[in-house]
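Quick one, probably user error.
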């Protein structure tokens, strides 16, 4: 299943970006995919079922932000599940009885409304992708025809089709994401 773009053509216009009308949806989808990959965490709200180990009565749920926990059951070594006598989700951490071992959790995580910073970043990346000449993806550094020439920034060539270092910083700021959750290195 394909996730929806993180921004729309109307968002791009509202933020002052001009996308080629024929390619706008594809550019926004491509930018959204790159941003989701770089985030290393879900952005769009979704429900997941995971099996995780309990450590000292605490279960750390992946894919913040976690918005709700629907159910928690204990998982035996043979894979069968059984009800827990109690569990508690306080909005920050999931607590279960110590010694439970493994649990299966059904929970909702991600953003029901995409943060404005992510929407604006998606529009910016899509505009950059749309403005990049076809040769930039092939690592073209410069081109010249008669007295006309243009040169592409080394950073833009290195990140052709991916996020630039400043865009990664903007994503971390928009998500309030510790660097430990970001995928890929900073340059």
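Nope, works fine. Designed sequence:
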């Amino acid at each position: 299943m394909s996730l929806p773009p993180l921004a729309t053509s109307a968002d791009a216009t509202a933020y002052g970006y001009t996308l080629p009308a024929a390619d706008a949806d594809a550019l926004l989808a491509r930018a959204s995919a790159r941003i989701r990959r770089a985030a290393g965490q879900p952005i769009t709200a979704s429900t997941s079922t995971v099996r995780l180990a309990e450590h000292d009565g605490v279960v750390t749920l992946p894919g913040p932000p976690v918005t709700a926990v629907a159910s928690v059951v204990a998982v035996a070594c043979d894979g069968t599940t059984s009800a827990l006598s109690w569990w508690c989700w306080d909005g920050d951490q999931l607590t279960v009885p110590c010694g439970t071992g493994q649990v299966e959790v059904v929970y909702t995580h991600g953003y029901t409304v995409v943060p404005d910073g992510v929407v604006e970043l998606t529009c910016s990346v899509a505009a950059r992708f749309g403005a990049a000449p076809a040769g930039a993806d092939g690592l073209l550094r410069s081109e010249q025809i008669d007295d006309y020439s243009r040169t592409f920034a080394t950073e833009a060539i290195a990140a052709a089709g991916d996020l630039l270092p400043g865009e990664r910083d903007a994503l971390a700021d928009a998500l309030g994401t510790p660097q430990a959750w970001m995928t890929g290195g900073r340059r």
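The mean pLDDT is 84.
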